[in-house]
From TrEMBL:
Keywords: Activator, Coiled coil, Nucleus, Transcription, Transcription regulation
Residue span of region Disordered: 126-153
Organism: Ridgeia piscesae
Protein name according to UniProt: Mediator of RNA polymerase II transcription subunit 28
A GO cellular component entry from the record: mediator complex
């Protein structure tokens, strides 16, 4: 039996040949003229099986060389592992930075919403789509309690403005039925 070092160049050539055979079987014009589909199926399966067998042999060869390397030069394997770990760490740090940036962006949007400013996404809407600012509520309480409550339309507008565009739409649709009753 051939050693892995003498066999590997031939395995690579065999793998290339098996791959070319797979392609040629799948793309050959003769396959289209053959009326027997079982014959075509069999030739395709044989060429693919040959390719898989050679690929497994080549993988075994690489694993044997890796084993020899780990026996004779264990420091090389450790260096490779360290290099892989460093790359993985850099990738994870980049992901963390990306998530921190997104978190910062969302926190700034939430702060703008809480301070009464509309976020950039909503402020891009046209003027007719934006909720109208609510009328100012009276700052001092009048003596008459019936004057203390603003009209329902002003209350609805204020509530809709403070809760957002969807709440405004919901309030508007619920007020449609109330207008018919009056």
């Amino acid at each position: 039996m051939a050693t892995p070092t003498t066999r590997s160049p031939h395995l690579v050539e065999e793998l290339e040949t098996a791959f070319q055979n797979c392609l040629s079987v799948l793309t050959s014009q003769e396959q289209y003229s053959v009326s027997d589909s079982d014959e075509v199926k069999t030739s395709v399966e044989l060429s693919i099986q040959k390719f898989l067998d050679v690929a497994k042999q080549l993988e075994c060869c690489f694993l044997q060389k890796r084993l020899l390397l780990s026996i004779h030069k264990p420091e090389q394997i450790i260096k490779e592992d360290i290099s892989e770990l460093k790359q993985e760490l850099q990738h994870k740090e980049a992901l963390i930075e990306k998530h921190y940036k997104k978190l910062h962006d969302w926190q700034s949007i939430m702060n703008r919403i809480q301070s009464g400013q509309l976020p950039e996404m909503v402020s891009g809407l046209t003027a007719r789509q934006q909720p109208q600012p609510a009328p100012q509520m009276p700052q001092q309480m009048p003596a008459n309690p019936s004057q203390a409550m603003p009209p329902p339309s002003q209350m609805a507008a204020h509530a809709a403005y403070t809760q957002g565009p969807l709440a405004s739409l919901e309030q508007t649709t619920s007020n449609i039925g109330m207008m018919e009753r009056q």
